[in-house]
Amino acid sequence: MEAASNPLSWDNIPSMPPSAMRAVKDITFGSIAGMVSKVFEHPFDLTKVRLQSQVLDTTARFNGPIDCLVKTWKNEGIRGLYRGLPAPIVAAMLENASLFLSYSELQDVIRRINSQPLSYDLSLPQLALAGAGAGAITSFLLTPVELVKCKMQVQMIAPKPLSVSIPESTAAAALESSAAPISRALPGPIAVLMSVIRTEGLRGLWLGQTGTLIRECGGGAAWFTTKEFVGTTLIKRRGSELTRKDILPWESALSGACAGGIFNFSMFPADSIKSTMQTEEDLRPRGSNAPKPTFLGTAKAMYRAQGVKGLYAGCGITVARSIPSSAIIFLIYDGLSSRFG
Predict the structure, then answer these.
(1) Average of per-residue pLDDT across 113-138
(2) I want to staple 26 with a disulfide (CB 3.0 to 4.6 A). Which of 63, 101, 195, 259 is the partner?
(3) How many Cβ atoms from other residues are within 10 Å of residue 78's Cβ?
(4) Which comes out higher in pLDDT, residue 145 or 22?
């Protein structure tokens, strides 16, 4: 008797070219992994952005990551810790789907250029090149979503409501309903997005693109090569004949954890400058006629204000949360690839 077929098997999907099927899997598995990890790490990401955004302030609002988490919890509750979550979830799904898809495709491009079979295992420098390219491509998708996310994450500490039109009756009703700190009517992600487009045009959505490009390009190279190096080292300890496909769940998690820590620590200054640029108008408004912040200008201002320490504001909590978050991403991605790949 034939065994019943698994209705969830990829084999039941109408036939398509192998390359297209692999692309679908990369997008699906990457999206799922990114979404799950972002729900876990969002409160820590919010803390990071708020610490980064206060570097240029005369007086710091928070004394450190723990103080920021505690004050956010007391003043804004659980909703405050997850403020702006929809945008990061979209960003995480886009980021990981784009990263894994681009990484796979660029590996094939490198193999074709070098006249190597598609099954050939690339060297670490070649994997670094593919990872950097994947990060560069992904950066253009991420910047608009991260702009909205960062603006929403500083809403409650901004000196005034963000530059989004809120009906006067709505704002008045919110202020009268409660004297609590979170009573202020706040715009949602769509309102923030449309406000940027109205005031700055579509080009305004890519404010901070230079920082995102540097972070994702360098970070992509570091992330993938670290994961591949640590993962392959662990696999080979069990047997020299084993390949990357033989990786165990704990090996995926450990190698992913190492990759996450190295990615975030090595590229953190670029991320700090990007976040400061994206929240500058909301926290330190200079008027519509003032020149827009630039990457180098913001970097110099942050260095003058607090030196190297300012460029690494929030780094500790970011690296700490990126270790389990990246472990989750690769645990899920490798697990799904092994199960359905």
Answers:
(1) 94
(2) 101
(3) 10
(4) 145
Tens of pLDDT, residues 230-263: 999 999 999 888 888 889 999 999 999 999 999 9
CA distances to 7, 194, 329, 341 from 189, in Å: 37, 9, 25, 35
Cα–Cα distance for residue pair 94/327, rounded to 1 Å: 18
Mapping DSSP to helix (H, G, I), strand (E, B) and coil, where does residue 64 land? coil
Amino acid at residue number 254:
L
CA angle in degrees (0–180, nearest 5) for 97-100-130: 140
For residue 25, pLDDT over 90 is answered with no
118 pLDDT exceeds 60?
yes
Looking at residue 278, its amino acid is Q
- How high is the pLDDT of residue 144? 93
Dist. CA 228–CA 221, nearest whole Å? 11
Model pTM score: 0.79
Give 259's contacts (C-beta < 8 A, 6+ positions apart). Answer: 222, 223, 224, 226, 227, 230, 326, 330
| Number of alpha carbons in the 13 Å side-chain half-sphere of residue 176 | 6
For position 228, what pLDDT does the model report? Answer: 95
173: pLDDT strictly greater than 50:
no
Helix, strand, or coil here: 119?
coil
Angstrom distance (rounded) from CA 294 to CA 298 = 6
Matching residue, tokens 């204000």: 305
**In the chain, alpha helices (H):** 18-53, 65-81, 86-113, 124-153, 168-177, 189-200, 209-238, 249-266, 268-283, 295-311, 315-340
Residue 203: phi and psi, rounded to 5, are -60, -30
